Amino acid sequence: MSGVMVQKMKVGSYRWTILALVFFATTVNYLDRQVISLLKDDYLAPLFGWSETDYANIVVVFQISYAIGMLGVGWVIDKIGTKLGYALSLLVWSFAAIGHSFARNTLGFMAARSVLGVSEAGNFPAAIKTVAEWFPKKERALATGIFNCGTNVGAIVAPLTVPLIALSWGWQWAFILTGAAGLIWLVFWFLMYEIPARHPKLHIDELAYINSDADDTSVHSTEKVSWFKLLGFRQTWAFVLGKFLTDPVWWFYLFWLPSFLNKQYGMSKMQLALPIAVVYTMTTVGSIFGGWLSGYFIKRGMEVFRARRIAMLIFALCVLPVVTAQASGQYSYWFAVLIVGFAASAHQAWSANIFTTASDMFPKKAVASITGIGGMAGGLGGILIARTAGMLLDHYKALGSIETGYFIMFIICGSVYLLAWVIFNLLAPKMKRVEI
User: Fold this and answer.
1) What is the CATH number of the domain that holds 91?
2) 1 in any annotated domain
3) What is the chain's Cα-based Rg?
4) Per-residue pLDDT reduced to its tens digit, 339-359
5) Are 101 and 173 in contact (CB under 8 A)?
6) How many C-alpha atoms does 40 have within 13 Å on its Cβ side?
7) Which pLDDT belongs to residue 119?
8) What is the residue range of 308's domain?
9) How far is residue 36's CA from residue 170's CA, in Å, rounded to a whole number?
10) Which is nearest to 114 in space by CA: 22, 176, 185, 33?
11) By the number of CB atoms within 10 A of the CB, which of 40, 101, 208, 248 ranks highest?
């Protein structure tokens, strides 16, 4: 059946139910990793005597573990399947999140963060593979943008709940309750998920729609795809370098935005809740719009590679105003909040598209592996930006001008997307599909 005929039919919507599961898993993923940044200034740093460099080192431990996990977990998910791979990852990271509550020194937090990093690495390879399994190309960027909103929702829920939990019951319970949320998700995952070809609730018309691209039947293959073989393709390096350059910006917002607002404007953790909620609400809009835009271009007849390329350029340009955040914040901190929110929103729009290029350029049997390799690169970039931020902020803090450190970081955050866009298009100008 042709893709045009399938598109004209009224198909079912069970794929969106599956996407909802991925959305909630991603929400829990980011909720768990955000807790430490919200407890840092009021609880953990005073209790354990952390400097900015100490905190940066804890962040780096997480990111090294995340990068290492990404290298292997994508291949594992491609081998054992999405259902079991996703469940195993979430089970381990939920217990790791709870494990933070038992830490009694900095080394204990590093141990808990390392396990959390390795296990949380499974979320995005499993999520992107799920989207590749359940959605045709014209809907994949939108689906990715929607589930990627879970990162924003997690970042909104965290400042609204974590300080309140810590104030009411102690900082340990903030880790325990947020970590336990993932265990509830597991029940629904096992009850509701199966690959489309074997799912009893999936109508035959929707299955035909999902498979309407008719260019990849490898999703159920157990053939081993070597990392070294994947690294031989220019498309791999386009994706990897794009993630290496831009993922760290999100890490910076995630781990340092609360401290930036605290140091720059003297805001307490309770005062931070609304501005952070505004920032991540904006990113939710950006994530969905970013996925919708390239899908809209494709539905209007534009080639896939051109639609992704134009959308990514638009969002790379939208990041640039972040360099003015501090200057605008002199008039009202809300100007800084809104500018950072706009830049973070553009990042999520960019992310929805660059994630989708993995399934555009590679067969489904290799999607989790490619996503994992790119995620590892993003984690390594996150390590670099964490070390850079820690040293810069400590240096300028000692000089009595920590604001200068943040200004330099915002210059970095605003400029890397255009560089990433140029490199991506030099390496994969037409995003030619790889044959493995």
Assistant:
1) 1.20.1250.20
2) no
3) 21
4) 999 999 999 999 989 988 988
5) yes
6) 25
7) 92
8) 13-213+223-427
9) 13
10) 33
11) 248
